[in-house]
Amino acid sequence: QVSGKKEPEKTPQILHVAEREYFHDEWTNLSPKILDAVEKKLHLRNDHPISLMKEVIVQHFYKNYTRGGNPIFAVFDNLSPVVTPEQNFDQLLIPSDHVSRRKSDNYYINKSYMLRAHTSAHEHDLIKSGLNAFITVGDVYRRDTIDSTHFPVFHQLEGVRLFNAEQLFATSDDKTSLSLFEKGEKLHEKQACHTMEAAKLVEYNLKKSIESCMLELFGKDVQCRWIDAYFPFTHPSFELEIKYNGEWVEMLGCGILQQEILNKAGAQHHMAWAFGLGLERLAMKLFDIPDIRYFWSNDEAVLSQFRGHSDAKNIKFKPVTSKQPALYHDISFWVPKEFCVNDFYDLVRNISSDIVEQIAVMDKFTNPKTDRTSYCFRVFYRHTSRPLNKLEVSEVHSALKEAAVKYLDVDGRW
Ligand code: FA5
Ligand code: MG
Questions:
Q1: Distance CA 394, CA 328 (A)
Q2: How far is the centre of ligand 1, averaged over its atoms, from the C-alpha of 336 (Å)?
Q3: For the domain 16-294, what is the CATH superfamily, name and number?
Q4: What is the pLDDT of residues 323-357, one digit of tens each?
């Protein structure tokens, strides 16, 4: 040995997520903010608007769907948010080259594990375990745009209900000639293997189940509408929108589960409906919460408003300060080839500690000669419960510019 110096041993970086350890690899893209959020479990916290929202919906299903006096829906609200890409995508028939798998849209722990992007990730396993009706509630993670109704961590409540022929046709006169399955063709209204009668009954049951839940939550004056939708794991598929502050806001996605999913989970004699709803969106509507960031507030003046209520009926949220005007600053830069906007949004979340209310893309331009692309973003700053001063905002904005150059390798135009 010449120098006595040893090469530093390369130890693989270890990540702690939801009480387990994982190796870091080239897929890892968890940010510190997201790792914090995994610990929060808002849906399990007493007196939080998310857990209140969950409770109201779960109670609705307990009360209205019983067999021999027992609730038929089993509830799972403590499944780990760490799932495999097989659970999140493959088991739901999401093709292996589908855009929704991209690293730029999801939080990967490493190549083999990710934070679930929806509660549908548990459908296959729960159906396989033999359940005929269940509700899953949990935190889900997506790299998404920034505005008052989108957050990279939010909560979904998923409902799934299976029917065999006897259950589905229970109220029909002519039970013997009716069946769930046929070798038919795929139509707008049904899958190839389903009969039209069966598909229509399942669709009707699905929509009625959701509508009656919404009626109980919001009363009869709520404005709802059904929109045709597409999900790789259901057909037909629908979305429910609800009027909120004068605008139609998407609350949930649903549909008739692809038969292949049931067959692979050992439930080939059943059909099923499934829905997945956003608890934040519903809670915003129910409690008059104007911004999705309030759910993450540690401010006593916010939290105390949801404490000590026996039900969710009479809670109307009062924003803590009268709404201050947003302050905004623009930021423009040339981006490297591999840039994706979600990288920038994640950076903003990490630098700004949630004083950013919204980011708007003002301009995207590719110079035809140099083939370089530049973006201009407008960043709107507003705290959910205190006024911001100009100096504080410009300091954060400067830090953001610096970080963009340092971490995203952009070429600042300032
Ligand atoms: C899904 O996640 C499907 N898994 C839903 C589903 C389940 C369809 C079962 C069919 C059968 P989607 O991506 O549309 O669908 O999200 C469902 C709901 O989550 C939305 O309607 C919305 O209420 C909420 N949501 C989606 N993205 C965000 C976000 N970034 N922040 C807050 N809520 C969101
Ligand atoms: Mg949607």
A1: 9
A2: 31
A3: Bira Bifunctional Protein; Domain 2 (3.30.930.10)
A4: 678 899 999 999 999 999 999 999 998 888 779 98
Site residues for ligand 1, CB cut-off 6 Å: 118, 120, 142, 144, 150-151, 154, 156, 158, 231, 234, 250-255, 274-278, 280-281
Distances 367 to 55, 194, 316, 333, 335 between C-alpha atoms, Å: 53, 52, 50, 13, 12
pLDDT digits (tens, 9 = 90+) for 283-302: 999 999 989 999 998 888 88
Domain ranges of the chain: 16-294, 321-412
User: How many A from CA of 230 to the centre of ligand 2?
Assistant: 9
Q: How much is the ipTM here?
A: 0.99
- Ligand with an atom nearest the CA of residue 248: 1
Structure tokens at 272: 């099923």
User: Can you tell me the distance from the alpha carbon of 57 to that of 137, in angstroms, rounded to the nearest whole number?
Assistant: 11
133-156 pLDDT, tens digit per residue, is 999 999 999 998 888 889 999 999
CA-nearest residue, atom 25 of ligand 1: 278
CATH topology for 321-412 is: Alpha-Beta Plaits (3.30.70)
pLDDT reading at 20 higher than 90: yes
CA of 238 to the centre of ligand 2 (A): 9
